[in-house]
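Schema walkthrough. Field components (list of strings):
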Amino acid sequence: MALKRQLREKLRHRGGIVYCAIIYGVLFLPIAVIVANSFNATDTKPYMSWKGFTFDWYARLFSDKSLLSSFGNTMVLAIATTIIATVMGTIVAVGMYRYMFRGKGIIDGLLYIPVVIPEIVMGISLLVLFTSIHLPQGMPSLVIAHVTFCLPFVIFNVRARLDGYDQSLEEASMDLGANKLKTFFGVTLPMLAPGIAGGALLSFTLSIDDVVVSFFVNGQTMTFPLKVMQSIKSGVAPDVNALSTLILIATILLVVLTQSKMVPNLVSKLRNRRSRALRSQDCAGTLSVNLKEES
Amino acid sequence: MKLGSHEFRSNTLPAAITVIPAVAWLALFVAIPLVYILVMSFCSIDEYYNVTLQLTLGNYENLLNPSYVQIYVQSLVIAALSTIICLVLGYPFAYLISRTFKEHKIILYMLVIIPFWTNSLIRIYGWRTFLGASGFLNTALMSLHVVNEPVDFLFNQGATILGMTYDLFPFMVLPLYTAIEKLDESQIEASSDLGARGLATLFKVVVPQTVSGIFSGCIMVFIPSLGAFYISDILGGGNSDVIGNLIQRQFQSGNNWPLGAALSIILIAITLLLVKVYQRSGGDMESLGV
Amino acid sequence: MSAEPIVQIRDINKFYGDNHVVRDLNLDVLEGEFLTILGSSGSGKTTTLRMVGGFEQPTSGEILLGGENVADREPYERDVNTVFQSYALFPHMTIFDNVAYGLKMRRVPKDDIVKRVTDILALVQLTAFEGRRPSQLSGGQMQRVAIARALVNHPKVLLLDEPLGALDLKLRKQMQLELKRLQRKLNITFLYVTHDQEEALTMSDRIGIMHDGVLEQVGVPKDIYEEPANRFVATFIGETNLFDGVVNAVGGDIARLTIESGTVLGRCSGLKVGEMASVSVRPERMRFSTMPVDGFSIEGIAREQVYVGSVLKSMVELPNGQEVRLERLASDPLPADGPVYLYWDPLDARVVQSPDQAVYSALQTATFI
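Field assembly_structure (string):
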C-alpha cells in the first residue's frame, strides 16, 4: 500500500522533469539553430536551408575584416567599461556605506533610473545630450553610455556584499597597526572581492550584449551586436554564426574553469610552495629545502 | 540623524572624494539627458529638421493620432501577453528548480543563464532561421508532408510575442526563484497537515508569500518589452510595432526628434507609474537590480 | 484515558539510502494519553513522528490510525494534526485566518468556524490577538496559535515536534504545564517528541525512549527511572552508577554479580548465570560505611564533596579509576582520605544486560572470588 503514494510521487517527479526539459529545450533551441547553421554549407541568401556540413564559415570568419573589427571594438569597449564602472562603483559604494550625509536617497533614485527605464529612452537621451555638447560619436560616446548603465549594477553588487560585512575586521586591522589606507587594501578590498567580481562580470556581460543603447550613440563605430543587426537586414552570413558559436564555447569554458576546482587548486598549490619556502627559511639554518620536491 | 554603527559623520575630504565622481557622472549622464528630453518634447522642428526652441504642445497633440494610438494599444497588448506567458510558464519552472530539484539547483540555475551569454540578437535571429519560410521548421514540416506550403510563423504579432517572451524569460524566472527559494518548507507541510491539497496549498500559501517576486518579475518583463524594437523588427517585420519602434523611427528616418522625445516621456511616465504601483504594494527596489 | 490504542505503529522501518534511521518500531499510543518519545538528535524520534503525520513514508511497515492503515495517505487525508517546531504560521494571514485554515479546508460552515475559532482562542488566552499577524506576536504567543490551529480541528491525535525548543526556560516550564492542562481538558491524545528528559518526565503519562532508531523502552516515568530495561536507558535518564560484571548466581529476583573488585547484589529479572550484565545504582540509593560490608566488596576513597543547597554530592574513586557518585540529604560528609566501603539495598539496584566484550576480557584477567 505504501507503493501507491510512492508511485504518485514518482509520477509527479517525472512530470516535473518533462516540464523543465521542455522549457530548457525551447531556451536552447535558437542556440542549437545558430550552432548548426554555422556548419551549414549553404551559399545563397537567406542562408536558411540546410545544404551540407562544412567548416568553411569558420575559416572565412578570419578573413571577414569588418566582422572581426566589430568584435574587437566590442571587446575593447567592454573591458574599458568594466574597468571604469567597477572602480567608480566600488569607491562610491564603500563611500556611501562608510559616510553619513544627506542625499543618499537621491543617489539611490538616480541609480535606479538606468535599471528600470527602458533602454531606448536611455539611448535617445544620451544621443540628445551628446549631440548638443558636440561630443564625438564613436568609442568615446559608447564608453560613456556603457559605463552609465553598468554603474548601478556594480554598486548594487558591492553594496550587497557590504551589507553582511563585519566592521570588527577593520577595527582589528587598525588595532594591529595598519593605517586606513593599508586596511582598505589589505582587509576591506579582499572582503569585498566577490561583490566586486560579481559587479565586474555583470558589467562586462551587459556591455558585450548591448544593442539598443549602442544603436543610438555609436556614430560610425561598429560593435559586434550592431554588426549582427546590420547583417540581419541583409541575411546573416553563417560566419556570424561561427563567431557566435566560438564566443559561446569560450564563455562556457570560462565558467567551467572558474567553477571547477582547477583554478583554486592551482592557486593554493602555489601558495603552499611559498609558505613552505618561507617556513624553511625560518628554521634556524638547519635544512636547505629542495623546492622541487614540494610538487 | 542617527548613525548606523558603520557610519561616520563626515564633511571632510574622504566622503567627498569617494562619492562625488559617481554622483557627478550620474547627474551628467542620467539626470541631465532626461531633462533634455523633457525640454525637447516641447520643441519644434524647422524645415531643415533642426530642432528649434519654439516651445509647443504640438508634439503631444500629435501623439493622439489614431495610428499612433493603435500602436500604443498593440504595444501594451504585446507586453501584457508576454508578461503573462512568462509568468505562467516561469512560476512552475522556478518552483521546480528551486524546490523540487533543489539538489541540482545551481546547475539548473546556470543552465537558464547560459543561453543568454550568446548575443540576444543572434538568438532572435536563430528563431527567425528556425521559423522562416525556408527555415528549419517549415522544411521539416514539408518533408514530413504535414503541410504543403510553408506556414507563416513570422511577421505577425505572435512571433513578436514569442521573441519577447523568450528574450525576457530569465528576468521573470530569477526574481521568482529568489522569492520561492526563501519559503520555509514547514509552511507547505503545515498547509497539507491542515487539509489542503496541492493546488490549494499553492494558491493559498505559496503564491501569497512570493508576491513580491511575481511583481518584480512582471515589471522586469513588461517595461523592456515596450521598448525592444529590434525584436519586433526582426520577428514581427513591421507588422507588430511597439512604442519602441515609433521612437526609434523618429530618431532615424522620421527625423522628428521632438516627437520622439514626447513619445519617450510617455514611456517614462508608464514606467514610473508601474514602479510606483510596485512600491506601494510593498515591493523593494533592491530586488529589481537582479 | 482508555486502554485502547488509537495509533498503532507496526514493524516500521525507515531507510534514508543506506541509513537505517528507524528499526523495527512497534508502539501503541493509547487513546487519551500523553505519550512522549524521548531521545537525542539522530535517534529517529522526529522521523517517527513525521511518519505518523504523513510527511515521511515508512520503507516498510504499517501505521494504523483508529484501526485503518494510513501509511500510504497524504497528510491532508489523515485525521491528525501537527504542531511544528518552527510553528509554521502563515505570515500573510491574520491569527484568526491561520486558526480557521483547517476548518475552511474541510468546508465547515462559516458560523461554526467563527464559533470554534473564537472558543479555542479563548482557551489559549489569545482572543485579543485575533486580527493581528504572526509577525506581531512573541514566541510564546505564536506557539499557542500553532497549538490552537491544530487543535481546533479536533484531530484524533495531536503530534507535537519539540514545540517548546525555541522558548526561554521560564516560558518553557510554564508552557509544559499549560500543554498538560490542555491535554487533560480536551482529552485528546498527544504524541510528543523531545530531547529534554525533564520535560518528558514532567508532562507524560508514558515515555518511549529511542536511541539509534530503536525503541529501547516504553513505560510510565517511574518505571523508566526505577526499572531501566537496559544499560542505555539507565544512563540516559537521570544519573546512575554502573558496575559491569557477570551474573554468577540467581535467587528469586536477586542476582549476584561478579565484578572487577568482587561481588555485589542487585535486583534483576530474566537474567541467567553466566550472562554479562551491569548493576545500576542511582546516586541517591548509594550507601557507604567505614567498615567492610557483607556481600559487597567495593572499596574506594572519597575525593570530592560538594554542597548543593540541601543536598550533598560526593564522589568516591575506586582503585580502577571508576568514579562513583553519591547523593544524600545534607549530613556528615564522607571521611576524607580514608577507605570507604560502598553498598546498597539490593532492591534499590537494577541489573541490566550489558553486551560488552571489553568488560568480559577485563574480567578474565581480574582476580575474583
